[in-house]
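ok so I'm stuck.
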Amino acid sequence: MASLELEGVPSVRDIVIRHVAKGDFLLSSGSGSRLFLDIPATVAEPELIHAVLRSAALNRQISNATMICGMLWSPGSLVLAGGIAALRRKPLLFVAKPETPVVPDQVHRFEIRGAKPGNGDIVLIVSDMAITGESLEFAVSAIESSGAKCSCAVLVDRRSADLRSRKPLSSIVLWEDLVPGNAELDVSLMTPDDYLRQFDEWSRQC
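replied:
not stuck anymore, here's the structure
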């Protein structure tokens, strides 16, 4: 995606692609992969949030939003949402999954923590990666039930072309911009300590 370029400052894609490694990796599904994306290392990059804030794909959404939202089941989402909220001084909230399995008629059981959205608010939900977009849909439904409006943004969009056309959202980097052809890419997970340390780092930059 296009970005607002500044001389000497890397783009979001440049930052993300630093953490794509080649080798022989075992995916959580049990299949093999020749590529690996280290999400904890990616979101820990000191320049990432500043690059995101310059991204043409997100700049207007961030400016229009009255609140920024992360998803508690996605630590990378928490780091991104926390960094954007801290640097743009916007209220921060989180959507948490219910303890019991979710079915479509139980979306209201998702819990909103932190700032409380209401009528007139525009909440930007931020995700590190979208594969099906289902998690974002649940988060949107939970927030819209409070009367607020939502928009969504994702750092890396791994969804199929069909899903992108049927359910568009703002993405900074597309999957095919990172990997050749249809290559599989393993993705590392973050621990709670990883994202708490990074949120502290973004907070110190305010």
